[in-house]
């Protein structure tokens, strides 16, 4: 009799624990789906804004003012928006377009950005407010009459550029990328980019002859 009660109690406890585990797993799955969906949604918005390579559809961005080119651009100076990669050049271009309603240009033709809010990619003249460039040296500087130099601390800028090269405009480098060749790949990347960060910023500061 006593043994039977213990067996029955054990069965009931087993059923109870199984039910708790089952309900917990269902709730966790639902919560994961909700969180994953929210992350995917926010990531999609970021991709559409910055032109990341994951999405191919055009971004539905709301602009504060209708975007336009500046008329009579032949008499206007060409203004460089110069920076080391990873310094926030594209983000500043977005803010300028929101604030002024004037397109920003670029010495590059990034098709992701071209389809997602920056139709003046590859435009280098006075019809745009500024022209994005990461280039430096005499040949690169001579195209511009004025320059805005955007400087970000080397640590965050180099990290952002490493993430961009590994995962696109809004992606991230995987842990394996940092551990590549026992970490020597990342160390060499930092060493090379730190030198480029210093030389490119100093080149625009010291050698550009127009107003900055």
From TrEMBL:
Which InterPro entries does the record cross-reference, listed alphabetically? P-loop_NTPase, Sialate-O-sulfotransferase
Q: Which Gene3D superfamilies match?
A: P-loop containing nucleotide triphosphate hydrolases
Q: Which family does it belong to?
A: Belongs to the WSCD family.
Name of the featured protein: Sulfotransferase domain-containing protein
